[in-house]
From TrEMBL:
<dbReference type="GO" id="GO:0016301">
    <property type="term" value="F:kinase activity"/>
</dbReference>
<dbReference type="GO" id="GO:0005737">
    <property type="term" value="C:cytoplasm"/>
</dbReference>
<dbReference type="GO" id="GO:0000287">
    <property type="term" value="F:magnesium ion binding"/>
</dbReference>
<dbReference type="InterPro" id="IPR000836">
    <property type="entry name" value="PRTase_dom"/>
</dbReference>
<comment type="subunit">
    <text>Homodimer. The active form is probably a hexamer composed of 3 homodimers.</text>
</comment>
<comment type="pathway">
    <text>Metabolic intermediate biosynthesis; 5-phospho-alpha-D-ribose 1-diphosphate biosynthesis; 5-phospho-alpha-D-ribose 1-diphosphate from D-ribose 5-phosphate (route I): step 1/1.</text>
</comment>
<dbReference type="GO" id="GO:0009156">
    <property type="term" value="P:ribonucleoside monophosphate biosynthetic process"/>
</dbReference>
<comment type="similarity">
    <text>Belongs to the ribose-phosphate pyrophosphokinase family.</text>
</comment>
<dbReference type="GO" id="GO:0002189">
    <property type="term" value="C:ribose phosphate diphosphokinase complex"/>
</dbReference>
<feature type="domain" description="Ribose-phosphate pyrophosphokinase N-terminal">
    <location>
        <begin position="4"/>
        <end position="120"/>
    </location>
</feature>
<keyword id="KW-0545">Nucleotide biosynthesis</keyword>
<keyword id="KW-0067">ATP-binding</keyword>
<dbReference type="GO" id="GO:0004749">
    <property type="term" value="F:ribose phosphate diphosphokinase activity"/>
</dbReference>
<dbReference type="InterPro" id="IPR029057">
    <property type="entry name" value="PRTase-like"/>
</dbReference>
<protein>
    <recommendedName>
        <fullName>Ribose-phosphate pyrophosphokinase 1</fullName>
        <ecNumber>2.7.6.1</ecNumber>
    </recommendedName>
</protein>
<keyword id="KW-0808">Transferase</keyword>
<dbReference type="InterPro" id="IPR000842">
    <property type="entry name" value="PRib_PP_synth_CS"/>
</dbReference>
Length: 318
């Protein structure tokens, strides 16, 4: 493809390379480093004048450093006369801080959106936003892709009893996502009502629906400390489920997450590679990874060619 450049930030270079390989391109030359005072320095190693630039940087790892690196890369390309700069952010940083739930609470996701726009970004491609309203925080085009096609493919190929399963949402907010997948599989769905004492700590959990004598597949956009999904797994078994799986888009797995998964009753915890999982998989054999580089690569190709990306919401050739 002519007049296109793809650059990788330091957060997830493996995914960036897979995207470039699927597009038949080489990653652009970029050097990122830090000065002795910990300021981030970015040097774009080739001309981007008149080019359609895509910068791949996921909101994971050292999130604040990676976000600052992304902002600087966007600005560097913009002032170097790139025709358009698109940020490919598979896992959007600060996405859980999307609303003012306390009187003095910030809406940090909106702040991040403002920062990206001011840096000079023209377009954003992301995946499974924690809250769809984050798209409204931008005054530029936002393509929120879904991992659903890849998830459906994995379920059909890896769970032999998928026709006798119940898809479960861990909260009311994920009900729309779960019902869409349940409808496409033609199976039942359920949801969990939970109450929190504070962030990352569930106080009370009630299963609404039936998982008796079937495979329970818990689906969510993100898992951080994994307290909710591990508590839910025990709830499913006590309610009569034969086996329990968790299928997640963004596997953050911070704090005690890995030890909790190892001690839980999951057959597998399946995540996409929007976040690097190599180190986590070394310490937890239950973690399995779905590659979504094809979905992101196809979105880039269609965006570059001026084609609709809505096709990817329902199907992508994996």
């Amino acid at each position: 493809m002519p007049n296109i450049k793809i650059f990788s930030g330091s957060s997830h270079q493996d995914l960036s390379q897979k995207i470039a390989d699927r597009l038949g391109l080489e990653l652009g030359k970029v050097v990122t480093k830090k000065f002795s005072n910990q300021e981030t320095c970015v040097e774009i190693g080739e001309s981007v004048r008149g080019e359609d630039v895509y910068i791949v940087q996921s909101g994971c790892g050292e999130i604040n450093d990676n976000l600052m690196e992304l902002l600087i890369m966007i600005n560097a390309c913009k002032i170097a006369s790139a025709s358009r700069v698109t940020a490919v952010i598979p896992c959007f940083p600060y996405a859980r801080q999307d609303k003012k739930d306390k009187s003095q609470a910030p809406v940090s996701a909106k702040l991040v959106a403002n920062m990206l726009s001011v840096a000079g970004m023209d377009h954003i491609i992301t995946m499974d936003l924690h809250a769809s309203q984050i798209q409204g925080f931008f005054d530029i085009p936002v393509d929120n892709l879904y991992a659903e096609p890849a998830v459906l493919k994995w379920i059909r190929e890896n769970i032999s009893e998928w026709r006798n399963c119940t898809i479960v949402s861990p909260d009311a907010g994920g009900a729309k996502r779960v019902t869409s997948i349940a409808d496409r599989l033609n199976v039942d769905f359920a949801l969990i009502h939970k109450e929190r004492k504070k962030a990352n700590e569930v106080d009370r959990m009630v299963l609404v629906g039936d998982v008796k004598d079937c495979v329970a597949i818990l689906m969510d956009d993100m898992a951080d400390t994994c307290g909710t999904i591990c508590h839910a797994a025990d709830k499913f078994l006590s309610a009569g489920a034969t086996r329990v799986y968790a299928v997640l888009t963004h596997g953050i797995f911070s704090g005690p997450a890995i030890s909790r998964i190892n001690n839980a009753c999951f057959e597998a915890v399946v995540v996409t590679n929007t976040v690097p999982q190599e180190d986590k998989m070394k310490h937890c054999s239950k973690i399995q990874v779905i590659d979504i580089s094809m979905i992101l690569a196809e979105a880039i190709r269609r965006t570059h060619n001026g084609e609709s990306v809505s096709y990817l919401f329902s199907h992508v050739p994996l």
